[in-house]
Design brief:
By secondary structure, this protein is of the alpha/beta class. The chain is 51% helix and 13% strand. It binds one RNA strand of 76 nucleotides through α2, β10, α13, α14 and α20.
RNA sequence: GCGCCUGUAGCUCAAUGGAUAGAGCGUUGGCCUCCGGAGCCAAAGGCUAUGGGUUCGAAUCCCGUCAGGCGCGCCA
């Protein structure tokens, strides 16, 4: 399809070049809402009319006359709706090309461009929650999308293992619960244990100066590598990180590199960045008396000074993040050391940064991205914009252009949902549209709990429909369905839509949901199995749509046309940062398919020509939906 | 105060400046004489918050107004 659109665009430009100045105007094609308008539509005439200040309708008619009969792909060009140029494709030719492409799929074009996707990046001090799931599902789908389009992709997860959040639970373990490292090592599900503890210590800290001072002291001792705090901190960060990896692996989400903040600090990345920043005058001593002794950067957008180096000489989060992001583009002149961290069941390794040469270091080279996607929620826009500004100020326009804050709105809880979870509402919160998810306040749905609920519901449904299925099979199937439901739910909304989390909606397996997509694919596979058993063969080669009668031909053609748009859709999703459009496309395809096979059964069709054509469409659909659902991280089960 | 985002069916959301604003849930009514009902068909439900403007064309772009959310720390 892509080449079809490109061919059309090029031919049109050639045919019109003598008559019109098309500079700055590109023919973009869309599929019109109704087939009677045509198969592909372009608003070229409107754009040209605007430019030349002429009437679009007359212009469109002239263009149509010049194109008529000159395009090998198009049967006819018509003008409608005041100036739309509508193309009616040569259907048999098009359909044969689709069958051909299916039989001999081409690998994606190599882009020769490395893309880094940073996602997840959860503080390693407690289990993951639903807010983190949105991040990871978006990030993973983005990474899959880049890979599908031919980019080399590296997935990084940034671990803030030195922050105050980890210090909080270290304080809780050592001073509040009075455990030693050995006792801490014996805690079975540490991340879940800390989930409770983190909320508890934050309640204790609130308004207690004495405890707040203790907390600062613990933080300081961790920074100074003093025992037992430092050892407990390392243990906690590593164990919780492994817990996050396990949680995400359930959803088919994998990482290539864990980048640790402690290594950014130990290797003094900021020193290299600071030299550049001061050299270029981007960072300078503040003239503000309140910020005496601080080094700051002027944030142009909001005309404020952001502190990068505190008066005591320590570096803020932003400072470390600037250094880390310079490293991602290979603009720092320094590199981490690396060590193996973990290997997935399939063999894929995760590396972790290190601050000294490691004995069994992985061979892969990390970083050196041409484009960097930071999947971080919208609340960090300010800091991400600042980094982008700094990249430009340091004389790296390419990096500034390739730096993308892949920003999305938060997941929140409705007041009703908070109450259902047995949690207290603060005064005034009842009237709010939604309430922020907070691990600190213990106000969140744990990712593992939600996954378990989805598996439980899915298991009940599976059991009801397949009572004879062995239990192990039923469990495996339930997991796949749960993953589909969750991943689809997390990406189906626009990025700037706040998800006001609702159990009923998240647990929905009907209609606009992941399991609906799986169901369509499962039904389709069932048809193919029965066709194979009955030795029915699909049409191929010089197929023509002629054996189909009117209504079916239109429905058939409609589906074939939409099936061809997968690559176009993926490119659109990436270019516009619109992951949800892929979910919508998948849903549209499955709806169209369900509709089609209800009207036009394959196996019961007596006419062999028609039957072979229908089967060819089912096969075409199978190929496309498998690819598309893989892009969304959704597996297609044998049955369900 | 400054910066960013949002307002669309009863609810939750779509709609790439484009043709008659679409889905799901919920409601009402139909459909297995079947290739599996996690499905299909149909009905009801809309002054796209509001007032202007730009455009051949506005839910979409611009300016006001109203209502909500997020960010702006020598936390990370």
């Amino acid at each position: 399809m892509k080449t079809l659109q490109e061919n059309l665009r090029r031919r049109i430009a050639e045919l019109l070049s003598g008559a019109y100045d098309l500079s700055g105007i590109e023919a973009e094609f869309t599929v019109p809402a109704e087939r009677r308008f045509g198969d592909l539509s372009t608003t070229l005439a409107f754009a040209l009319a605007r430019k030349t200040r002429s009437k679009p309708f007359a212009l469109a008619n002239d263009i149509a006359a010049r194109l008529q009969g000159q395009l090998p792909e198009a049967e006819e060009v018509r003008v409608a709706g005041g100036g739309f140029l509508n193309f009616f494709l040569r259907r048999d030719l098009f359909f044969r090309a689709r069958l051909e492409a299916q039989a001999r799929p081409l690998p994606p074009p190599a882009r020769g461009e490395k893309v880094i996707v940073e996602h997840t990046s959860i503080n390693p001090n407690k289990s993951a929650h639903i807010g983190h799931l949105r991040n990871s599902c978006l990030g993973d789908t983005l990474a899959r999308c880049c890979r599908f389009l031919g980019y080399e992709v590296e997935v990084q997860n940034y671990i803030d293992d030195t922050g105050i959040q980890v210090a909080d639970v270290v304080w809780g373990l050592l001073r509040h619960r009075r455990l030693d490292l050995e006792a801490i090592r014996r805690i079975p599900d540490l991340a879940a244990y800390l989930w409770e503890l983190y909320a508890e210590v934050n309640r204790l800290f609130a308004g207690d100066e004495e405890l707040a001072a203790q907390r600062r002291e613990v933080h300081k001792r961790i920074e100074e590598k003093a025992e037992p705090e430092y050892g407990v901190c390392l243990h906690v960060a590593e164990q919780v990180l492994l817990d996050h990896v396990r949680t995400m692996e359930k959803l088919g989400i994998q990482y290539d590199l864990m980048a640790r903040e402690s290594d950014v600090i130990a290797l003094d990345f900021f020193k290299a960045a600071a030299a550049e920043l001061t050299g270029r005058g981007v960072m300078f001593p503040s003239a503000d008396p309140d910020k005496r002794g601080c080094l700051v950067i002027h944030y142009e957008r909001e005309k404020i000074e952001k502190i990068i180096v505190r008066s005591n000489g320590t570096i803020t989060y932003v400072g470390k993040d600037i250094a880390y992001n310079l490293w991602k583009f290979d603009l720092l002149g320094r590199d981490f050391f690396y060590r193996p961290f973990h290997a997935y069941a399939g063999g894929h390794p995760i590396a972790m940064t290190a601050s000294a040469p490691a004995p069994a270091a992985p061979g892969a080279r990390f970083g050196r991205g041409r484009r960097v996607y930071n999947v971080i929620d919208v609340r960090q826009s300010y800091l991400q914009n600042l980094i982008s500004q700094v990249l430009a100020q340091l004389g790296h326009p390419g990096a500034a252009a390739g730096f993308v804050h892949f920003s999305y709105e938060m997941v929140a809880l409705t007041p009703a949902c908070v109450r259902d979870m047995g949690l207290e509402l603060e005064p005034g919160e009842e009237a709010k549209p939604y309430i922020e998810v907070s691990g600190r306040k213990g106000r969140a749905v744990k990712a593992d709990d939600l996954i378990a609920m989805l598996e439980e519901k899915s298991h009940r449904e599976v059991r009801r429909r397949n009572p004879e299925l062995p239990e192990a099979e039923a469990r495996k199937l339930s997991r796949r369905i749960a993953v589909a439901a969750l991943r689809y739910f997390m990406i189906k909304f626009n990025l700037n839509t706040v998800i006001a989390f609702d159990f009923q909606e998240a647990l929905n397996f009907e209609g606009d949901s992941g399991p609906y997509l799986q169901y369509a694919a499962v039904r389709l596979n069932s048809i193919l199995r029965k066709a194979a058993a009955a030795d029915i063969e699909a049409a191929r080669g010089a197929a023509s749509l002629a054996p189909l009668d009117g209504a079916e031909r239109d429905a058939y053609w409609e589906l074939a046309l939409h099936l061809s748009l997968l690559e176009t859709q993926a490119e659109y999703a990436l270019a516009h940062h619109d992951i949800s459009s892929l979910a919508a496309y998948a849903y549209l395809l499955c709806q169209k398919f369900n509709h089609y096979y209800h009207l036009f059964p394959v196996l019961a069709e007596p006419d062999p020509g028609r039957r072979a054509l229908r089967l060819a469409l089912v096969l075409l659909f199978k190929g496309r939906i498998e690819t598309l659902l893989a892009l969304l991280g959704i597996e297609i089960p044998e049955r369900m």
